[in-house]
Amino acid sequence: MVEYLPRSAWNARPPNAGPGNLTASHVDGAVIHWPGTGSTKVIHTRTAVASALRGWQDYHMDTRGWSDIAYQIAVDQEGRAWTLRGMRTKSGANGDADVNDRYGAILLVLVTGEQPSAAMKATTRAVIADFRKLYPRGTAIRPHSAVRPEPTDCPGDPARAAIARGDFNPGHSEDDDMTPAQMQELKNFIEARTQAYALWVHKQLRRDLTAVAKAYALDIKNYERQTDAADAARAAAAVWATAPKNLAADAPAQQEPQVPDPNTDPKLEDHALDPFPPVEEAKAEEAK
Ligand SMILES: [Zn+2]
């Protein structure tokens, strides 16, 4: 969303009768210009830009005899957008009636050797997006030098290179301006993430397969255990059937060991071991 400063922001003079509006069906795109000051003195502050715009308007109207400042919109290095003729009015900047009929005209407030700032590029992209809303088939973005019938250096090498890179294309992301090292870093990051994901999928599969294999192994073990037990029982029964009949009866009974009870007297049934054997009185009478 671009906020366009009005003509009053640069104290514009009213225009004279001009060329009228662009016809959408004629419009091929937008042409990029610079003022061509022939100086390296930058024009950055709002006041400096406003003053420069007013000076160019005076020059175009008073010296060249045009109806108004020649361009439609200006964009400065701080990212401000300025209404000049406005997007609907044909420009007088592109070179002749034909190219003024087929192209809009955007002025980048750049001086000799100056690179367009990120703010200038972002605002210019937004301005061009607005331009395309008015002129849907006008998608070209061209340097003035590419359309002017006579040679021109406009809009200067840095802006020409920026156009060639697509820096002013709506939707252009500054991510595309990565250095080769940053590009490689991003590539490495994506590869690492991809590998990590593949490993994760592999581990998930292996875990699931391991669970299935474990369950299957347990099933087999249970089956084998049950089968062994049944076989063993059958084998034991077969052996038992061939054994002598009294084998079980003759087997010595297992006896629990006797634990002495301290609360009762021991029963001494073997009198021979009794130190005080009872006297047999009847036998004693007979002996008298
Ligand atoms: Zn130009």
From TrEMBL:
<protein>
    <recommendedName>
        <fullName>Peptidoglycan recognition protein family domain-containing protein</fullName>
    </recommendedName>
</protein>
<feature type="compositionally biased region" description="Basic and acidic residues">
    <location>
        <begin position="264"/>
        <end position="273"/>
    </location>
</feature>
<dbReference type="InterPro" id="IPR006619">
    <property type="entry name" value="PGRP_domain_met/bac"/>
</dbReference>
<dbReference type="InterPro" id="IPR036505">
    <property type="entry name" value="Amidase/PGRP_sf"/>
</dbReference>
<feature type="domain" description="Peptidoglycan recognition protein family">
    <location>
        <begin position="2"/>
        <end position="148"/>
    </location>
</feature>
<dbReference type="InterPro" id="IPR015510">
    <property type="entry name" value="PGRP"/>
</dbReference>
<dbReference type="InterPro" id="IPR002502">
    <property type="entry name" value="Amidase_domain"/>
</dbReference>
<feature type="region of interest" description="Disordered">
    <location>
        <begin position="247"/>
        <end position="288"/>
    </location>
</feature>
<comment type="similarity">
    <text>Belongs to the N-acetylmuramoyl-L-alanine amidase 2 family.</text>
</comment>
